Amino acid sequence: MLMLSSQGRVLGASDESAAGAKNPRAEDVPLRERAGHYIGLLKGIVPWLTTQQAESVRSLPSGVVVRERLHLRRTAWGSCLTVVDHHEWVHAVDPQTARLAALGFMIAGVCHEVTNPLTSLHSIVQILRADKSPSRELLDKGLDNIAVNVKRILDISRRLVTFARVGDEPRERFAVDEAVTEALYVLRHEGLLEHVELRRRTDDAALVVGNIGQTREIFLNLLVNAVQAMQGRGTLEVETRRTGAQVEVRVGDSGPGVSEAIRKRIFEPFFTTKGAGQGTGIGLAISKEIALDHGGTIELQAPADAEPGTGAVFCVRLPQAPA
Ligand SMILES: Nc1ncnc2c1ncn2[C@@H]1O[C@H](COP(=O)(O)OP(=O)(O)OP(=O)(O)O)[C@@H](O)[C@H]1O
Ligand SMILES: [Mg+2]
Asked: Distance between CA atoms of 313 and 252, rounded to whole angstroms?
């Protein structure tokens, strides 16, 4: 926490971390010496006297990139600037606040993702406007392009709403296979399973506590990815079982699998290898968030763990509902 005078001078600095530990990142420069960097990020006519929240991204001397949230509050003598390390923030505050914080950090990515289709829409509208009597062909092309870009934006916003709601939704006790069945129903309804051989092993006694709609979203994302990876044709294996205190659902496909380079990045928001209009790269990021919120995990199994001949195998683990 930094205490600033009404002239923007540093009156005091406390390196206390949110968890109470001194100097949370040993290699970091002292907070007082970072004050100029933070003040430079503030907005307003007199920035250090304007109550606000801001975000900072900076590199430690070691090269590690740190994201921080800044909260500035006016006080009688000047202001008080609290700097919260994103990592600590996520671990020290309640899950709902942490999720909203994560959502805040995603906004930058969202803006980037939404700007591309919006720029295309803007250009198409300009082109169509400039042409006083556009040909049928030009109109059709323009409309197709508009439809693709609008769909892309809608897709992003629809799924982000799901992400923002994680944790807010009512929780109940249900068999995890109900969520899997609902997700498979959606795929079947959309004709995605027409050329897919589905092998399924269920476990009616695999009960969890959570939100069935959001849990379905996890399986929907995994199943759609699997079918996309197999280009609509192949074998899909969905197996549910209980392992000790957990419930495990494995989704395996006969697609090409995931290369070592891509493996590290697949859970990053907006990481996608799919073409424009085909994938936004948020399916796995959202799924991971939902799984964590349910006290579970989701992972891509290492090739060595996977059965020979299989493509990718994702494993979702959720705590078993208490008896
Ligand atoms: N079963 C799979 N087989 C091979 N690669 C996969 C599989 N599942 C995910 N991936 C890889 O992980 C990337 C990220 O997946 P994710 O679901 O987050 O985004 P997406 O499918 O590209 O877009 P979105 O889900 O937002 O429509 C994919 O682009 C793909 O490269
Ligand atoms: Mg996906």
From this structure: 4
